[in-house]
Automatic annotation (TrEMBL):
One of its GO terms (molecular function) is transferase activity. Belongs to the peptidase C56 family. Pfam families: DJ-1_PfpI. Keywords: Glutamine amidotransferase, Transferase. CDD domains: GATase1_PfpI_like. InterPro entries: C56_PfpI-like (IPR006286), Class_I_gatase-like (IPR029062), DJ-1/PfpI (IPR002818). Residues 12-176 form the DJ-1/PfpI domain. This is Glutamine amidotransferase.
């Protein structure tokens, strides 16, 4: 098999919800497809889910399977993109937590970055594991039993993690490797003694990007207000009925 198509015959699940960080799903998705893999977008609902660039709305992507109907046995590996909204929604879903557990219990490769490991923590999979993530969730992962390292890439058995979009150059070849040879579970980092310390300041490039974000439009504010009011109204209608 050519190096360029070394994932031919591999089926990968990408578990994502609304609010996924666009570059963390679309770029790995394309790399996996170019390597010959078939990738299904698995989510909490049908239709098209909305991506984000940091906190700004981005394009949508179509869902192939709802997580309640997806069978982990049909897949060779799992991709968990980040963004701070997407994993927060997924970690509240019992079927999503169980879907992730099934991959780990079968020792199938799981690749995630940024805030994606939040879901692993809520699924109870981080005790005794070594990984990295977006620095802002370092304490959550340590409190869930993990050793956290401030590295561009950490591999611990079937788990491959990176800190965020800034590490994409390391993350992409690593996920191609782990999905191509899921039997190789050797760690990439062994010379560490406990977790790396917390950062003293937020990442400068992320703060700068937020500083230059445009102001919300009147239409966006009106939509947010309507969404906030809709739930109480639905509850009142339900009580009357």
């Amino acid at each position: 098999m050519s190096q360029g198509r070394r994932l031919s015959g591999r089926n990968i699940a990408a578990l994502a919800a609304d609010g996924f960080e666009k570059v963390e799903l679309v770029i790995p998705l394309r790399a996996l497809q170019l390597a010959g893999a078939k990738v299904d977008i698995v989510s909490l609902r049908r239709g098209r889910i909305r991506g984000v660039n940091l906190h700004l709305p981005a394009s949508r992507i179509g869902v192939d399977k709802v997580v309640t109907e997806a069978d982990s046995d049909a897949y060779d590996g799992l991709l968990l993109p980040g963004g701070f909204i997407n994993p927060d929604l997924l970690r509240q879903s019992a079927p999503a937590r169980e879907f992730v557990r099934a991959f780990d219990h079968a020792a199938k490769p799981i690749a995630t970055l940024c805030h994606g490991p939040w879901l692993l923590a809520s699924a109870g999979l981080l005790t005794g594991r070594t990984l990295t993530s977006w620095p802002g969730i370092r304490d959550d992962l340590v409190n869930a039993g993990a050793t956290w390292l401030d590295r561009e890439l950490v591999r611990d058995r079937n788990l491959v993690t990176s800190r965020g979009p800034q590490d994409m150059r390391a993350f992409l070849p690593a996920i191609l490797d782990v999905f191509a040879d899921s039997t190789d579970q050797s760690p990439t980092v062994t010379n560490h003694n406990g977790s790396d310390p917390q950062l003293d300041t937020p990442l400068g490039w992320a703060v700068a990007a937020l500083r230059w974000s445009p102001k919300p439009s009147a239409a966006a504010l009106a939509s947010a207000a309507a969404a906030a009011l809709a739930s109480p109204l639905r509850r009142r209608v339900s009580l009357k009925n």
